[in-house]
Amino acid sequence: MDVSRILSGLNEAQREAVAAPLGNQLVLAGAGSGKTRVLVHRIAWLIHTEQLSPQSILAVTFTNKAAREMRERIESLLGISTRHLWVGTFHGIAHRLLRTHWHAAGLPQAFNVLDADDQLRLVKRVHSELNLDEERWPAKQTRWFINAQKDEGRRPEHIEAAGDLFLTTMVEVYRAYEAACARTGLVDFAELLLRSHELWLRHPDLLHHYQGRFRHLLVDEFQDTNAVQYAWLRVLAGEVLSVTAVGDDDQSIYGWRGARIENIHRYCDDFAQVQTVRLEQNYRSTGTILGAANALIARNADRLGKELWTAGEEGTPISLFAGFNEQDEAGYVIERIEHHLNQGFQRSDIGVLYRSNAQSRVLEEALLRAAIPYRIYGGQRFYERLEIRNALAYLRLLVHRQDDAALERVINTPSRGVGAKTLESLRERARADGVPLWDAMHTCVTSGGLPARARSSLAAFIELIDDLQVSVQGLPLGTLVDVVLERSGLLAHHGAEKGEKGQARIDNLRELVSASRQFDTLLWADEEMRAEVEGSSPLAMFLDVAALEAGDAQAHEDEDSVQLMTLHSAKGLEFPVVFLTGVEEGLFPHKMSLEEPGRLEEERRLCYVGVTRAMQHLYLTYAEMRRLHGSDHFHKISRFVREIPPEFIQEVRMNHAVERPFTGADSLGGDAVYQLGQRVRHGTFGEGVILNAEGAGRQARVEVQFDAEGSKWLVLAYAKLQPI
User: CATH number of 662-723: 2.40.10, 2.170.270, 2.30.29, 3.30.310?
Assistant: First the structure.
């Protein structure tokens, strides 16, 4: 291949990053600057020009979608298969290592990966064993604690409780949880990274082997790495491997889930002779949008620094709308959406962003009233759906009878008379004997101790799973899944649900069969993939992929629809038209950001991410009064808006009955004039403030929030309100 083809179409900074000599490199890739293109062309350069073998390159991403896109683009560019190239997520690569070196990692060969839902089930079981009150010690809180400790590389013995009741309790649960996982051969997501990191540290021979195998590491979204991921990379790279780190400290917005912005700041100190390249040319947004984004993010201290620019047009000013309340704000958003749809934009070209999920309700209601299809981006994904989780649990039991989480999920789905009391008896037997629930179930059936009906139900479940195991032996994976769905009773169970919901569940189960068939085809076409997990089975491998994909692959939606999402969900996306709603102090930036060091700067980065999602048109909207959690809040405009130079912003007004001042003079036959936000007095209800208004003439109504009586709608002709 001609070198010019690899460098073709790249700007000067992109070419510098792609063609850099082997060594450590930091690529500061601004929003919309083509970072994926640089990563793909860098890999092509390493293979073609530096003569690196595909097997000697390891590329780490944060999503399976990004990994698949990278593979496809490399294959298209080089015209070669990428099956020998190590491209995957941190968790996916760690899982691959543990499957290959299960014994050295201290795991059973047939270990199973817990998804978030089943991890929560296991935590609840541990809580029950320790007699913890769920109200005082919520299982979700414990799950968060355990995962956070693992993300920091800490085992229970590394945590100093120092007499603190919360820490003492959490460490006790963490220790019991680890014991339960070890007893039943289960590994959660956070464990994948921590255990693979410990694999390097405890087995220098393995570390040396992989340092000899790999020559170059590439890491995408470097600013999102947490403590254990960064440590994993540093240990693997050592003083031997060169690293290309691609990221943007200005888009580090996941501190709340463990990401450490200091990792990208430390990179140049922790790795030798780092060359820094800045990708500042933006191919997404107008000059006006970029000018606003640059001015906003410049307020943050300790930045690595860059200035986005575009060779494209300056574009229209950013529109700033102030609504009286959230209904007014939503009405303006709808009016502008309809305007852009009439101008030829697709609904999917429009993104409506908000800081808090609680803001979506009013927007959704307004979209429904306007009959504009919409979708909450990041909704329930395929492998997270109830019917799919149930099906996977049955399949997991075929592979690993000791999977307690799977057993608890389906032992009474469909209903077979195994109630909560019977299940608790099983748990007690398992604890007493120190065995998994499956073994305890056999003991309860054969040795008594349970009512005859309960023993019969348990025996029927054992027979079902054992019979399924025999009947699917030797079947292709797709046929196997089909048989399990039918004979387990899941198809009949979910099909019995009325209406479209039941049909949707059946369709999803059928799609699972299709997914398993597709996986089987890919598996048998890839000899290296099969060889890496010698001793496993196609079903076990499929279950691992399903667990790793859960929470990653977006559910498909055919209908063109407006996209609603939180600002955190918007990262990585772009829309020709963007509405950034609720830009108010206390909401965005969130009031809690003022109480923790570093949080305000992360909120500003979040705003920067929101602004740079817009390609052509950007709207900033806020409400002077917003009802949140049942109370009315009067907010000032967000400081982030005030930090944008006024030359980039145009304040707008809308011809809307709620937004503008109104008069009741005609209907009252007098000269009383009222405005939204005005305080008034009523003869019965006392004093209050006017929140809303609708209609005209004698039927004009106002909503008044009275100090003592709450909110009431009144007809102006009869209310006899007195302005204060």
Answer: 2.40.10
